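Follow-up to my earlier ticket, as requested here are the two runs.
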Amino acid sequence: MDFQQFLGFLIFLGVFTLGFWLMIFLITVVIPYWLWGNFVEHRKLKKEAKRLKA
């Protein structure tokens, strides 16, 4: 294996690893944060509609 192939392999490995950790970050941090914010906003809207109705 010459240096060009080795360098290509290292670049591929780096991009693959960055993508892997980005997906882990999105699944464990961003998506739950987004879902929780959506839930809180929905609850506020329901409470506001209930207050205006009564």
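Run two:
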Amino acid sequence: MPGKVRLPALFVGHGSPMNALGDNEYARGWRSLVQDLPRPDAVLCVSAHWQTWGTGVSAAERPDTIHDFYGFPEELYRIRYPCPGAPDLAGEVAGAISSTSVSVDPDRGLDHGAWAVILHMYPEADVPVFQLSLDASRSPAFHYSLGRELAPLRDRGVMVVGSGNIVHNLHLADMSGDGDPYDWAVAFDSLARDLIDGGRHGRLVDYVSLGPAARMSIPTNEHYLPLLYVLALQREGEPVTYVNERIALRSVSMRSLRIG
């Protein structure tokens, strides 16, 4: 589309679904990532909370708000984010990806990795949102390469948002929120920033080689993989801006970033 401004790519550390409620430091950080940007024509979200065998893209005209969690206050389950979908774009994305076949799901709604964040960025729910799933059978290198195939979207008015957490170990999380972050969580979050700043994406793709702190921080990789999609979209010389640079619950990095 001629005349379009190249949009940044975002990675959001989404943390607890409770961050969808009200106004807190994380919501303000997420809003700051988009406050000086033109309104996108659509948002493509790669979320930790849509894992599949094979790659899928959501194509609902009016995606449901999926409450894919339990044990939270009733007010959280009452939230609806009634944004439109982007079925035409979903079909185009499925057709444009050459590294793997992509199935189009006409019924898939938005999981909380998408809506609980995007509702703070675009509270009027007037920006179409669709999602790309994470193929759980594939390697981190596959996901990084697939992310590269999404690069043309940035010049077509589509903002790509990865939603997960760089450090995500819920087994060791302190739900009281009172404790200091674990040393290994701080160490890996800091290392990840250093590698991002240095453009050393290969080391982040091969995160299993980064030592014990990485293994503690990424016991399963579904929350980490969305970061790789966003890093894959970085072009030479593009700056990185960070917000929400802290560890919640001792073991969940809320670090969020904007490329471009």
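The only thing I checked on run two: Strands lie at 9-13, 42-52, 55-58, 102-105, 129-135, 158-164, 240-243, 247-248, 252-253, 256-259. Let me know what else you need.
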